[in-house]
Amino acid sequence: MTPRARRKAGSITATVTALVFFALTAFPVYWMVATSFKPDPDILRIDPKFVPWPATLAHFVDAIHKPYFWTYARNSLVVSAATVLLSLVVAFLAASAVARFRFRGRTLFLVSVIAVQMVPITALVIPMFIALRQVNMLNRLPGLIATYVALVLPFTVWTLRGFIQGIPVELEEAAMVDGYSRPQAFRRVLLPLIMPGLVATAIFAFIEAWNEFLLPLVLMQDQTRYTLTVWLVSFSTNRGTDFGGLMAASTLFTLPVVVFFLIVQRRVVSGLTAGAVKG
Q1: Helix crossing, 106-118 with 69-100: angle to 10°?
Q2: How many angstroms from the chain centroid is the CA of residue 218?
Q3: How far apart are CA 154 and CA 140, in angstroms?
Q4: How many helices (H) and strands (E) does the chain have?
Q5: In tens digits, what is the pLDDT along the chain, a chain of 279 residues?
Q6: Which class for 78: exposed (0-12), middle (13-18), buried (19 or more C-beta within 10 A)?
Q7: Alpha-carbon distance 235 to 246, whole Å?
């Protein structure tokens, strides 16, 4: 076999492998969306119906009109947006300090960041509950936001530290030689170059806050303080599970994450060139 034929065969193999992997990954999402449009008899039939036809919007209407839906949606959006903003600000400053400065206890700080990330969330629920109760923040959205920020900070600090370390410190020094102050060099040189890392950590923080179920269930005692993850559980009762409503609710629940990713993913490319310096 000639080298050209081997390259072509390798390309075909890689393409087929990628398509198979994509199909396996996308099929559960397709089945969720398809089931949300199926009438109840088509959902429970023995032979699966892959195409939702005739389609119905009844499950979406029922899901939207369930009690407290808009309240839960507002709570989820407020908590997730606040978690992203606060975690990015704190993590960016902490990661910059760790990556750019040498101070006593720096290694211990990095080790503790990794150690905290390894602790399962179930082991932190009771301490968080007691801490919020002592400061009178239990059953309040600011208390839930604070716990979410504490939950995502270890990963965001560690991730942004890697991005900042990959940017030569000489760029900031050259900017300061040209007359910029350190804050100006920080804002005009480092910040645009770190934008892909900020976008990546923002996506992680948003998904982590949006999908969290255990913390709002335990820390929020008032029904009006719950988030959409707790709302999804309401489709399963002692009398059974409303599979059509659950799939429609899950589809609605997924849309904000998709929209958020589509909004910020453009910044990944633009951030790579926004801080470029001409030689």
Answers
A1: 150
A2: 21
A3: 23
A4: 14, 2
A5: 677 777 777 788 888 888 999 889 888 888 888 888 888 788 877 877 787 788 788 888 888 888 888 899 999 999 999 999 999 999 888 888 888 777 777 778 778 877 877 888 888 888 889 988 898 888 889 999 999 998 888 888 888 888 888 778 777 778 788 777 777 777 777 777 787 788 888 888 888 899 888 889 888 888 888 998 888 888 877 777 788 888 888 888 888 888 887 777 666 555 444 444 443
A6: middle
A7: 6
Q: Do residue 136 and residue 80 come from a single domain?
A: yes
Q: Considering its fold, how many domains does the chain have in total?
A: 2
Instruction: Mark whether 155 and 225 lie in a shared domain.
Output: yes
> Do 68 and 49 belong together in one domain?
no
Q: Tell me which residue range forms the domain holding 30.
A: 3-56
Same domain for 212 and 228, yes or no, is yes
Question: Rounded to 5 degrees, what angle do the CA atoms 252, 253, 259 make?
Answer: 85
Q: What are the structure tokens assigned to 185, written together?
A: 């060099």
The CA-atom distances, in angstroms, between 135 and each of 1, 35, 138, 225, 243 are 73, 45, 8, 18, 41
Instruction: Decide if 279 is inside a domain.
Output: no
User: Quick check: is 137 in a domain?
Assistant: yes
Q: CB of 215 within 8 A of CB of 128? A: yes
Omega before residue 48 within 30° of 0, cis = no
Whether residue 136 is contained in a domain is answered as: yes
Query: Tokens 């990628």 label which residue?
Result: 18
Answer yes or no: are the C-beta atoms of 274 and 195 closer than 8 Å.
Answer: yes
**Contact indicator for 107, 172 with CB cutoff of 8 Å:** no
Residue listed under structure tokens 């589809």: 251
Residue 143: which residues within 8 A CB-CB, separation 6 or more?
A: 132, 135, 137, 219
